[in-house]
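Hey, I was hoping to borrow your eyes for a little while. For a while now I've been wondering how a particular protein folds. The fold is given in discrete form, as structure tokens running alongside the sequence. Could you read through the record and tell me how the tokens relate to the sequence? Take your time with it, there's no hurry, and the full record follows here:
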Amino acid sequence: MQRRSILSGLAASIIAGAVGSRRRASAEEKPILVFAAASLKNALDEISERWQRETGKPVTASYAASSTLAKQIENGAPADLFISADPDWMDYLDTRKLIKSPSRSDLLGNSLVLIAPASSAVKLTIAPGFPLAAALGGGRLAMADPAAVPAGMYGKASLEKLGVWPSVANQLAAAETVRAALLLVARGEAPLGIVYATDAAIEPGVRVVGTFPPDTHPPIVYPIALTTASENPNAPALLVYLRGSAARAQFQKAGFTALDETR
């Protein structure tokens, strides 16, 4: 009887130890590190939280301008996944063999809008030669840095196509990210700004004045890919999840267009 009790206790200890080991392993599991364009933050945070609830696999996201993130990956940052706001910065990493090319696909699309503070009464029709400089009234046009940040590059391309870039090129408030440009307008520090439609949708401090015609700028495409340096065994599964129906629905709810075209 005593021997049976000892054996039972020993078995219970072994089981408890195994469960504890699994829990510790899960707790110590290395998070999947996602580098993503700043405009994705709200939607991707919600999707990442859902993934973690469903799988128990941790995710950490780092948001910044696509140009900044690409340079960080080039310099050895340990990202597992990269989601860029334009194909050029993904191409930049691809030509340097820093992403796993077979994993790459075009995940999302977006549109570009002109915004003003919510209290502003300004009215403009976006068309060739429209009086953007006059509408600024001596203030500055907030936009992401057109020299490197995708949202700014799209915005500059559109203004050039519409023939108004020369009139505002010296009146820019060039921001580090599109979200920073959004805040400048929301705080009333700039009378007008150019951001993605999805950014304008989450900020009650701004209103959309107009949408830039899609034929005035390159298609706004967000490609996704695994990095070459990634060794996290859970990263490929998260990539599949981000292309799946649950994530697609959340992205669309946030105003993105789901593309998911594999190259």
Q: What stands out?
A: The chain is about 45% helix and 20% strand. The longest strand covers residues 32-37. Confidence is low (pLDDT under 50) at residues 1-7, 18-27.
